[in-house]
UniProtKB/TrEMBL annotation:
InterPro entries given in the database record: DNA/RNA_pol_sf, RT_dom
Protein name: Reverse transcriptase domain-containing protein
Transmembrane regions: none
One Pfam assignment: RVT_1
Length: 377
């Protein structure tokens, strides 16, 4: 009866629930890159901002080379390891202008009661005034391929931090950054994601299960158990190496990402729409009830964007293909060792090797991956 009487009022019940929520997300101390602990609120904010500003402004993947040389290396990397391309008919279909029906579909499939972006406009605002806003929305975003830029205010995001289970609360990398985008930008990205998603299974090789429709993380779990069982039965030496790609979404190199999109056959209009999401975006981090000073970033796909998992999956694809091509061990019926992204939300890889070799370091520079053997939860 108490919840029935007070659940929808701004009273003590709501205050108590908010207090518990704030306490759970409060960061009491944080360790900087020099392993020094900070306790003061301003120092905590400054340390966290510095960490994410560095994370989203990584140095070039191939230092010491000019941009043309880096572009050549990226093209050679993709040409050698990424053979799947969209049919021309599909490319033409994806190039068509955004339609009102797609906007309606994006609105219907979006969850309400989500935190809005920096502009404070919730999704219900767009649902309530859809007829009025729809023509202006479509005109603005359909003009992007003609050279119109998305306003900088629209590209701003608020980053909220969620601590990963079992991770050290004193380390900045223990927190997962979720970008709260403006709803109009999320709707635009959701339309693009809805267009691309049906074609993703044809572009991604079967070993990669993450974020691909019709595939699940358990597919690779079953494969690992099957190979382990066969190795035991046949007396083969087998090493099962599980790794995690540290801050994988946040480390994606944009030059490499856009080159990948062009390589698989996306047309100029769709590439222009996707590029527009990454032209001088800014973000600020929400720490202990306060926002940091905004900063720009030049790499990463923002977690919280509907298009982000698709872009990450496409950018990741050449890496496991190259690993599988690296070596074929004589006497092994399973051929080359297999590498795959086997987590729907965790950027995980499992390598099956008949020996203890771990040659992945040479494969990770261009896609800006950093593999770690730290245990995952």
């Amino acid at each position: 009866m108490f919840f029935f009487a007070h659940g929808d009022k701004s009273g003590c019940l709501l205050a108590h629930m908010l207090q518990k929520q704030r306490a759970a997300s409060y960061i009491a101390k944080i360790r900087d890159s020099h392993k020094k602990l900070h306790y003061l609120p301003n120092d905590i904010q400054s340390t966290i901002r510095s960490y994410y500003e560095s994370l989203y402004n990584l140095p070039d993947p191939l230092p010491g080379q000019d941009r043309s040389a880096v572009g050549t290396d990226i093209c050679e990397y993709l040409s050698s390891h990424l053979k799947c391309r969209l049919p021309q008919s599909t490319t033409r279909l994806l190039e068509s202008p955004l339609l009102a029906e797609e906007l309606v579909g994006a609105l219907k499939s979006s969850k309400t009661r989500k935190c809005p972006g920096p502009d404070g406009l919730p999704l219900n605002y767009y649902k309530r005034f859809l007829k009025t806003l729809s023509p202006h929305f479509l005109l603005a975003f359909n003009s992007v391929p003609e050279g119109r830029l998305i306003p900088s205010q629209t590209l701003t995001a608020n980053i909220t931090l969620i601590r990963k289970d079992g991770k050290d609360a004193e380390r900045c990398k223990s927190y997962q950054p979720i970008s709260l985008l403006n709803c109009d930008l999320k709707l635009f990205a959701k339309i693009l994601a809805s267009r691309l998603l049906p074609h993703i299974p044809g572009l991604i090789q079967p070993d990669q299960a993450g974020f691909v429709p019709g595939r699940e993380a358990r597919d690779n779990t079953i494969r690992a158990l099957t190979l382990t069982h066969r190795a035991q039965r046949q007396g083969e030496a087998l090493l099962l190496l599980s790794t995690d790609a540290e801050k994988a979404f946040d480390r994606v190199n944009w030059d490499y990402l856009f080159a990948t999109l062009e390589h698989i056959g996306l047309g100029p209009h769709l590439c222009a729409w996707i590029r527009a999401l990454y032209i001088n975006p800014t973000a600020r981090v929400f720490v202990n009830g306060m926002y940091t000073v905004p900063f720009k970033f030049r790499n990463g796909t923002r977690q919280g964007c509907p298009l982000s998992p698709i872009l990450f999956t496409l950018a990741l694809e050449p890496f496991p293909i190259r690993c599988m091509k690296f070596a074929r061990y004589p006497g092994s019926e399973s051929g080359p060792y297999r590498a795959q992204n086997c987590g729907l939300c965790r950027r995980s890889f499992i390598f099956y090797l008949p020996s203890g070799d771990h040659p992945t370091q040479r494969f990770t520079s261009i896609p800006s991956l950093r593999l770690t053997l730290e245990p995952k939860n």
